[in-house]
Amino acid sequence: MRNKRQRNNDRDLIRVIKCASALGLGLMAAFLYSIKQVTPELRYNISVGTGVSFMAAATLSWAFWRLVFGKPNRSENGFSKLRKRWFIILSVFLTVATLAPFVYALKGVANEKMVEIAEGTALALLALGGVGLLLWKAARFLESDSKRADDSADSGPEKK
Q1: Where are any strands of DSSP class E within the chain?
Q2: What pLDDT score was predicted for residue 127?
């Protein structure tokens, strides 16, 4: 009973991670796509492309986390070569797709403001890197905890 509840909890947490990540990346992509001018005032325009950007980013994010949390293949470290290749491709694509609209939105910014923007961007990247590290650690913890729960359920109660 406990083992089934633990698996349901793990599955629910993974679903929350997938949904939150897809929603966050989708909203960010839609917002960055709709930005038309940053200075002297923020101007944006919501269009069909905004919805397409949202759907594309959300779908790619969902696919990325599905690769991360998918059922491990029976290889030396749990990732098959094809799965690892898709993981790398999606990681690079999501990184470029995140940075490209941001850089494009800054096309009209004066050179004096670029230093401030670079500092803010560096701080944001550090914060996102920290969040990514925490998510990675949480995923590793959940995997090891699931393995421990499975191992203890397989061995049964010990008799003294």
Answers
A1: 35-37, 43-44
A2: 95
